[in-house]
Design goal:
The chain is of the alpha/beta class. The protein has one domain: NAD(P)-binding Rossmann-like Domain (Rossmann fold, 3-Layer(aba) Sandwich), CATH 3.40.50. The protein has ten helices and seven strands. It starts with 7 loop residues before the first strand and ends in a 6-residue tail after the last helix. InterPro entries: NAD(P)-bd_dom_sf (IPR036291), SDR_fam (IPR002347), SDR_subfam_1 (IPR023985).
Amino acid sequence: MGRVAGKVALVSGAARGQGRSHAQMLAAEGADVIAVDICADIETNEYPLARPEDLEETARLVEKEGRRAHTEIADVRDRVALSAAIDRGVAEFGQLDVVVANAGIAPLTAGSGIQAFVDAVDVDLIGVLNLVHASIKHLQSGASIVITGSMAAALSASNSGGIDAGCGGAGYGFAKQIVAHYVNDLALQLAPQSIRVNGVHPTNVNTDMLHSAPMYRAFRPDLENPTREDAEVTFPFLQAMPIPYVEPEDISELVVFLASDGARYVTGQQIAVDAGCGVKARAWRGL
């Protein structure tokens, strides 16, 4: 307990799913949390996104852990509004030590138009850049930046295990590949200041993104209107371990470690929480 005691963490996409889990576990380990979410839908993203009451619930869970929560409704695509939101949170808590760039969408609708590609890239890539770049001015030596990637980056790059998910799926895979490259290069730039940058790459995670109609169709293109039960038959095919998905808390455990001083010399890493998805999809490439 107390691995991030005394720290202030910024989490995007914090209203539910992985973001809520990260916020709650960081609070349980001693951090105050600035929780940011759009709390509105994006037209090309077929499944509904979080609502203001979801963000309020995240704040309640943080406060239940005995820590302070500052919430902001902001779109990560809007650098100006996002920067102002971050500044308000930092003004309230007086510092910023951890940045978790987690917000993301998956408009995986086969046959969708180019706007789905644009939206996926704008949220999953530009949104990451906006959050990190608006935060850097607040960070000091010892700070940690954790960026949510995806095993989709590795699968897209290797053309292994991909699914037909239209323009939005192509945008998602592209964004996650570039995010991984960004982690590598930003880590080099910030290392002289002892600010760390790492990428976390999950496989399927038990969230609303996975349990959605477009995701079910992407995994079961043989069916017109697949159900959750239909899709869950195929979910385990990605992983080497016999599971359909990991839990948000499994990702949060790694996020908290990377945010903590226990990882003070860990930077520039691409770490998968994937139940063997990567080793199943890619041939051994040596050290």
